[in-house]
Amino acid sequence: MTSSIKGIGIANGGGDCPGLNAVIRGAVRAAILRHGWKVVGILDGFDGLIWPEKTIPLTVDRIAGILPRGGTILGSRSRGDPFHHTTDQGCAVTQEDFLTCRRTMEKLEIDALVVIGGDGTQTLARDLGRLGIPVVGVPKTIDNDLKATEVTFGFDTALHVATDAIDRLHTTAESHGRVMVIEVMGRDAGWIALHSGIAGGADVILIPEIPFTIENVCSRLRNRAATGKKFSIVVVAEGAKLPPADPFGNPFPTPRPGQVGILVGEAIRESLKQDVRTTVLGHIQRGGSPSPFDRILSTRFGVEAVELIARGEYGRMVCLRAGEIESVPIEDAVGEVRLVDPNGSMVRTAKAVGIIFGDEP
Questions:
Q1: What pLDDT shows up at residue 2?
Q2: From 119, 143, 156, 203, active-site residue
Q3: Looking at residue 201, which CATH number applies to its domain?
């Protein structure tokens, strides 16, 4: 099967993520040094599959030095895609798109694609595969919410950033006797909030999977103050679901991205009549150099994606299971978010050390 491959393309979609460049580097080096293939970088998401001029050759020299770099040398698209045809199931790739991609791939001498991205990007990869494009996937999201893999690259780096921020807020919170609210990423799943909250010694963690009330949060903070603890740390996932109303019966507005932590902080301040400050980490968690764990995982993912192509195992996505790199059908990897189990061991551990989730006082 290896002898039939002359060149491959690499594309990444969705938001940037620490470790993207490490995946690209691993795939390029494995493709060139191990198999002697040509490698083409697809720029700005999938745009290069529509417009051939939006591609670049990827050589060993060109990817030199990118291992520790954040972001992606290929650029990305966090919203939209060139295959924007709305169906009952959302956006899909059509036969016309397939023909366009196939012509582009033939022009660029690309025999298969490595597609790096989260659920939305992998769904597009699945659709391309269904129409006959040889494709393999690499899971990417700092939210760690793809069900087919135990860990996604980028999560560990985001966790380090969030934990470091909590550590820093601890010192200023204690100095001023304040409640510090910190909002971290996690639109659908609360993995970053849960892990960083435990690692950073938070008092309250609010995640999408566990309903909470401001009354329960404030009860916890009052109890801390009554025992002489004049400061508290509240970690909020950006996707945490606000209760219908605040403690005074006022409906919460529909939050915009980055606003949940602010609304929670304001409600706590009004209830406790205490100084509350809110920090929204936002895209800080997605930037910067990847951690050593993410560099290694990304490299392993990139190499295995190339090996899947060499073996002709298309329509599959690499994953991490029990410490080993494996693969699953892309069909099985998309459409379902990996959520925190409210009764799982991580939540039980947090509760055992006194952290509350706002579901009870």
A1: 45
A2: 143
A3: 3.40.50.460
